[in-house]
Amino acid sequence: MKQVDIVVIGARPAGLAAAIEARKNGVKDILVIERDRELGGILMQCIHNGFGLHVFKEELTGPEYAERFIDELSDMGIEYKLDTMVTDITPEKVVKAMNTEDGLMNIQAKAVILTMGCRERTRGAIAIPGTRPAGVMSAGTAQRYINMEGYMVGKRVVILGSGDIGLIMARRMTLEGAKVLAVAELMPFSGGLTRNIVQCLDDFDIPLLLSHTVQEIRGKDRLEGVTISQVDENYKPIPGTEQTYECDTLLLSVGLIPENELSASAGIEIDPTTSGPIVNEAMETSVPGIFASGNVVHVHDLVDFVTAESRRAGENAAKYVLGQLKEDGPVQSTEAGAGVNYIVPHVIRTSNIEKDVTLFMRVGNVFHNAELVVKADDKIIMTKKRRHMAPGEMESLKLPVNKLPQTDAVITVEVAEEVVQDEKAS
Amino acid sequence: MYDIAVIGAGVIGTAVARELSRYNLSIVMLERDNDVACGTTKANSAIVHAGYDASADSMKGIMNAKGNAMFGDVCKELDVPFERIGSLVVAFTEEDMETLEGLLENGQALDIPGLKIIDSKAVYEREPNLNPGVRGALYAPSAGITEPWEMAIAYAENAVNNGAELKLNFEVKSIDKIEDAFEIKSDKETIKSRLVINCAGVYADQVHNMVATEPDFAIHPRRGQYFLLDKTTEGFVNHVIFPCPSKMGKGTLVVPTVDGNILVGPDSQDLGLDEKEAIETTGDRLAYVKEMVSQLTTKVPFREQITEFSGLRAEPDGGDFIIDWSKSVEGFYNVAGIKSPGLSSAPAIAERVMEAVVELLKPEAKADFDPVRRPRIKIEHLSDDELQTLIEKDPRYGRIICRCEMISEGEIVDAINRPAGGTTLNGIKRRVRPGAGRCQGGFCGPRVLEILARELEMNPIDVKHEGEDAYILIGETKA
C-alpha cells in the first residue's frame, strides 16, 4: 500500500491552503486529491470580485484568488491528482481513491485533511410543489454553465433564496441579458452579505421579496412560470398573497450543506447543527489524525475565512504527524447560547493554544447594537459589542488564552440585545 | 407494413413487444415521448405485489399471482434489479385483523406462496420503527421491489435486439382501419400495421376511440404523490409496509427501493378525464401523504427527503384490467386500465397478449431469439480486483461523474450507446442514476450533458432534460 504522511481531500481553497501550510510546517510527503478536472474548485466559476480583502488586503476575482494558492502549491512541488475520486476513508486513515490512470488506489496516511466543501440544497429537499420541468436549477449549477461552459440558461428569471450565490447570479444573469424578475427569500432577512444585496440587486433594480417563497412551479417540458406567496411567521404561504411570474428559469439559492459522506465512512462525529464534523482547536475531528476545514465543517461566508481556518488545519495536521500536538491540559467545550446557532471549534485544548483561539459562529437573527457575551461555565470572561449582526454573515471572536480558565469548562457565547454597561470582565 | 404496432412504450408495451419478438413478426413500438418509460412506469411505488389482495376471479388477481411468479426469471434474463424483500400489511385494530384474515383467505385461493399472519412481536422484530399498537401483520414473502423504468428500458432494449423497432416522438393522432390493416398517423409520419396492441396507459381509451365505433371503456387518471428519501435512511424499513387496504386502494406505504432509498406514498386522488397530464405535486396532497404515513410510523426522517414526484394510475371504469381483443374493432387488442398491480403483472400480461397474437397469426418462433440482455456494469458492485481490471481495459470506468451515486463515465457511455439508449439527462438518470442522488444533478448535470453531446454528436444546446421542449441551455454566453 502506498504510504503518505498527509492526504488532503479536495484541491479547492480549503485543501490548497491546508496542503501549503502543512508543507510550511515541515511535512514533505503530501498528496492532494481532487475530483474535478482542475485545481481551485468552485472559485474557478466565481469570476466576480470581492475575494481576498482579508488575506491579501486587495480585491481579487475567484480564479485570481485560487491562482495564488495554485502557484504556491506548484512552486512547492506538492503532489496532486486531478479527476480522482476518493470513495472511502477508514478510521485507520486508509484512503481509497480511483481515477482513469491509476485505477484503484489504497493509500495509508498518517494524517488526513478533509476539505470536500459543500453542495447546494435542492428543490426536492425543500419540496416545492408543482411540475418538474427543465429550467429549475441551483444557482451554482447555472453559474457553472455560464462561467465555465459558456452557455446561457434562460431569459426570464426568478431566484428563490438570497444566499450569496443567488445574489451573485442575479447580477450575472442580468449582465448576460436576462431579465431577473425577483429574488424571493423565505426569511424576514437575507442570507447573503449586505454588500452583495447592494451591488447585485439594488444596483440593478431587482426586487428582494423578504418573507416570500415559491409556492408552485408550472410548465411541462420547460419552466413556464412560478407562483410566489408571502409567508407568515411559521413560513407558511398566506392565502391571497399569490403572485404569478412568467419565467423560463428558477434558480435556487436555498442553502448549502457540507458534504460529509466520506466523514461518515470514517466514523467521524457530526454536529447536527452545522452538518459538519465536530472539531477541536486544531481542526481535528473526533477521529485522531483526521482534520477538516472549510465548508465541509461549516458553511463560510468569505473564502478568506476558509483560508485562515484551513491554514490552521494544515499546520496542526503537520504537528500531528511530527508528534507535536498536545493532549494534556484543560479541555473546554463550546456551546451556542441564546441567539447563536453554532460555534466552531467545538472543543478547545488550551495547551495547544499559543496566544489566542478564534471562535467562528453564526447568529440566528438580525441584531443591532448587541453584544456577544462569552462565559466560562457561568462566569463572563469577555464581551464584544457588535453594531450589526445577521445570519448571513459569520461572526468571529478572538479569545486570548489568558481568558480561558485553567480547568475543564464549558464556554458559551450568547447574544445580549441590550448592551450591558460596566460589567465587562477585564 | 408491420405485423404488430404496439402503442405506448411503458413497461406493458415494451414487455408485449419483447414477448412478441420471440416470433417472426415485424413489430414497431410507437411512443409519443422521446424515451421509453416516461408515463406511469416512471412514477409509481416500484414494488412487485405478492398478489393476495385482488380477488381470485379478477384479471388483476390472476395476472398478479402469475406475474409475480415469473418476475424473478424475467429480471434475471434482462438484468433488472429485483429483490423479494417481502411485504407486511400492518393491523392496528381488531377490525384490521379481520381484514388480514380476508386477505389471507383470498391469497390462499390464488396460491400465493408463504402467506401468513404474524404477531406483533414478530412484526416489531422485523420493523422496529413502526408505531406502537401493532396487533399483527400479513406477511407475504414473495413481494418484492424493483426499478420499473429499468424494467421497461430492458424490455425495450431486448425487443430491439430481437428485431423490434422503436419509434420515439411518435404521438398517435389517428388510426384508420383500411381493409385488413391499420393506418396509424402521427404529425410527421404514417405507418401501417396488421394488428394494433393498445398499451397507451391513461390514454388507452382515447387511442381505442380513434378507431372504435363506440367507446368500450374510459380511463380516469388517479394521481398519487410520493416522497423519496436519501440513501442515508437505508434500513429505516426492511419490507414493503402497507396499512390495511381501503376502497381507494392499498393505502400510503413506506418501502425501501432497490437503490437503498426509502419511498413514502402514494395518496390517491381521482382526476378528471381531461387531466391526464396533471403530474404535478401539490402542497396539500404532499402534506396528506405525511399525515397518512404517520398512521404507520411517525418516525419517517423527512429531513432527508431528496425529491417528490407524482404519477397517474390508469383507473378503468370497470375496475379490472382490460386485456382482450376490442369488442368492436377486429385486429385491435386492448391492454388497458393497467393500474396497480400492473407492474407486478407485466410479465403475465405480455404472455397473455403473445398467446392471443400467436393464436391469430400463427407465426413461426424465431430461431435466434435471445432472451438475455447484456448485463449492465455497475462499478459499485464490483470487487476491487474486478474494478481494477475493468479500468485497465476501459479507463472511462475509472472516472466518477456522479459522486452521490458513484457512477462512472463508462457506465453513462454504455447507457447512451445501447439499443433504445438514453438521449436526455433524465433518460440517463433512469438508466444509470446520475442525478438520482442527493444533489439531484446539481454537480453531475453539466458533465452528463457534455457526455451526451459528445457521444450523440449533438450541440450541447440541443441536449434535453426530458421532453422534446425541455431545453436546458438557450445559447452561448456573450463573447
Your description of this structure?
The complex is a heterodimer of chains A (426) and B (479). Chain A is of the alpha/beta class and 426 residues long. Chain A folds into three domains: 1-119 and 256-325, 3-Layer(bba) Sandwich (FAD/NAD(P)-binding domain), CATH 3.50.50; 122-254, FAD/NAD(P)-binding domain (3-Layer(bba) Sandwich), CATH 3.50.50.60; 329-426, Immunoglobulin-like (Sandwich). Chain A has eight helices and 30 strands. Chain A has helices at 13-24, 62-76, 123-126, 139-149, 164-175, 194-201, 261-265, 303-321, and strands at 2-9, 30-33, 49-51, 60-61, 79-81, 85-89, 94-99, 103-114, 118-120, 136-138, 151-152, 156-160, 179-185, 208-210, 212-218, 225-230, 243-246, 249-252, 256-258, 270-271, 276-277, 290-292, 331-336, 340-344, 347-349, 356-363, 367-376, 379-389, 395-400, 409-416. In chain A, strands 1, 2, 5, 6, 7, 8 and 22 form a seven-stranded mixed β-sheet that branches. A five-stranded parallel β-sheet of chain A has the order 10-18-12-13-14. Chain A has a five-stranded mixed β-sheet with strand order 25-23-30-27-28, with no helix packed on it. In chain A, strand 15 and strand 16 form a beta hairpin. In chain A, helix 4 (139-149) crosses helix 5. The longest helix of chain A has 19 residues, at 303-321. The radius of gyration of chain A is 22 Å and the shape is globular. With 479 residues, chain B is of the alpha+beta class. Chain B has three domains: 1-83 and 145-218 and 317-375, FAD/NAD(P)-binding domain; 84-144 and 219-314, D-Amino Acid Oxidase, Chain A, domain 2 (2-Layer Sandwich); 379-462, Arc Repressor Mutant, subunit A (Orthogonal Bundle). Chain B has helices spanning 11-20, 59-78, 94-109, 120-126, 148-161, 204-209, 283-293, 342-361, 384-393, 409-417, 425-432, 445-455, and strands spanning 2-7, 27-30, 47-48, 82-83, 87-91, 116-119, 136-140, 144-146, 165-167, 174-178, 181-185, 190-198, 219-229, 240-243, 253-256, 262-265, 269-270, 305-316, 322-325, 332-336, 400-402, 407-408, 475-476. In chain B, strands 1, 2, 9, 10, 11, 12, 19 and 20 form an eight-stranded mixed β-sheet that branches. Chain B is globular, with a radius of gyration of 22 Å. Chain B starts with a strand and ends with a strand. Chains A and B meet through helix 3, helix 4, strand 11 and strand 15 of A and strand 18, helix 9, helix 12 and strand 23 of B. Strand 11 (151-152) of chain A pairs antiparallel with strand 23 of chain B.
